[in-house]
């Protein structure tokens, strides 16, 4: 990319391409509470041309891929669907059946500024500092074949999914509704089961449906289940993720899982702030104690 192109991109806003009042209102009122559409200009950015992405993929150490028709309802456990090699999946992208994720794109010198730019714009849009409460942040590129699906799942990060090339439909489900995401499913997720959220056909009609095309982005709050169906062309999306200091919420669920394993019925998260706080602190304390014990044993 030449200097002129770099400056052109630097001069753009990442989250508010159209500078619309509607976008600003959504960020302010719905951020991490409800999903919403926003606008961006990344589709005009030469860094997201297919050739530039191919070169980036060769530089990046972390990339994952599937080949084959991954179903919506089986989560990430579709082990039979792995391709022979990453290059194979990349070359067959247009043919169909490939799903590729390039992890930690922000660690590449040419793309890194986008993540910090995204965070500072987000802070402006939500009228508060977020940096002090962010545990981790990351940026991934998702490349998928025409007609490909991304399985139903939940994430521990909030997501700003920016559609760069091709079209797709993103279905988002209400993660606060326990008939959609049960207490036990959420507990299992925070305990490490990435496929813990179970797809139920009967919830499909109450899901939000977002038609994504280049220039359109969708915000998905933490643990709101979602799945994706691609249109007739190759789809490229940039996923910008922020994980807030949610260890308290995660630890309350982990504590509830332990209580359930002991044969008891834990009080659901959110019913009592005092009990939630005690459980979270107790679980965090036990983890810290176990961590220190392991360190002492290693030294001994
Ligand atoms: Fe996701």
Largest sheet: 7 strands, antiparallel
User: Distance between termini?
Assistant: 54 Å
Going by CATH, the homologous superfamily of the largest domain would be Cupin
Shape: globular
| Residue-averaged pLDDT | 83
Structure, described:
The chain is an alpha+beta fold. It folds into 2 domains: 3-245, Jelly Rolls (Sandwich), CATH 2.60.120; 249-299, no CATH class. Helices cover 33% and strands 23% of the residues. It contains 8 helices and 11 strands. Helix 7 (247-261) crosses helix 8. Residues 153, 155, 159, 226 line the site of fe (ii) ion (FE2).
Give a quick set of tags describing it.
Jelly Rolls, 300 residues, four-stranded antiparallel beta sheet, alpha+beta, 23% strand, single chain, 2 domains, disordered N terminus, globular, seven-stranded antiparallel beta sheet, binds fe (ii) ion
Write the topology of this structure.
Layout: H1 3-10, H2 21-30, E1 36-39, H3 50-59, E2 63-67, H4 86-91, E3 98-102, H5 112-126, E4 134-144, E5 149-153, E6 158-165, E7 168-172, H6 183-190, E8 208-212, E9 216-220, E10 226-230, E11 235-244, H7 247-261, H8 273-299
Antiparallel strand pairs: 1-9, 2-3, 3-4, 4-11, 5-10, 6-9, 6-11, 7-8, 7-10
Helix pairs in contact: 6-7, 7-8
Bound molecules: fe (ii) ion.
The site of fe (ii) ion has 4 residues, from loops.
């Amino acid at each position: 990319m030449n200097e002129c192109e770099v400056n052109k991109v630097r001069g753009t806003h990442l989250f508010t391409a159209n500078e619309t009042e509607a976008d600003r209102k959504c960020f302010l009122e719905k951020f991490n509470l409800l999903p919403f559409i926003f606008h961006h200009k990344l589709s005009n950015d030469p860094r997201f041309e297919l050739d530039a992405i191919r070169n980036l993929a060769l530089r990046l150490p972390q990339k994952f891929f599937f080949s084959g028709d991954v179903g919506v309802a089986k989560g990430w456990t579709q082990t039979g669907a792995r391709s022979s090699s990453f290059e194979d999946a990349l070359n067959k992208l247009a043919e169909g059946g490939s799903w590729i994720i390039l992890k930690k794109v922000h660690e590449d010198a040419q793309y890194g500024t986008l993540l910090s730019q995204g965070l500072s714009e987000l802070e402006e849009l939500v009228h508060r500092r977020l940096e002090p409460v962010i545990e981790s942040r990351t940026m991934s590129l998702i490349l998928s074949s025409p007609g490909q699906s991304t399985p139903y799942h939940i994430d521990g990060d909030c997501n700003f999914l920016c559609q760069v090339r091709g079209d797709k439909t993103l279905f988002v489900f209400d993660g606060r509704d326990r008939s959609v995401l049960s207490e036990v499913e959420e507990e299992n997720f925070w305990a490490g089961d990435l496929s813990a959220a179970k797809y139920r056909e009967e919830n499909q009609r109450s899901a939000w449906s977002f038609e994504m095309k280049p220039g359109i982005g969708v915000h998905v709050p933490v643990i709101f289940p979602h799945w994706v169906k691609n249109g007739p062309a190759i789809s490229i999306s940039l996923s910008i993720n922020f994980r807030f200091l949610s260890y308290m919420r995660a630890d309350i669920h982990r504590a509830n899982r332990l209580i359930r394993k002991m044969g008891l019925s834990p009080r659901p998260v959110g019913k009592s702030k005092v009990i939630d706080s005690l459980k979270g602190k107790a679980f965090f304390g036990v983890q810290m104690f176990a961590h220190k014990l392991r360190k002492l044993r290693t030294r001994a």
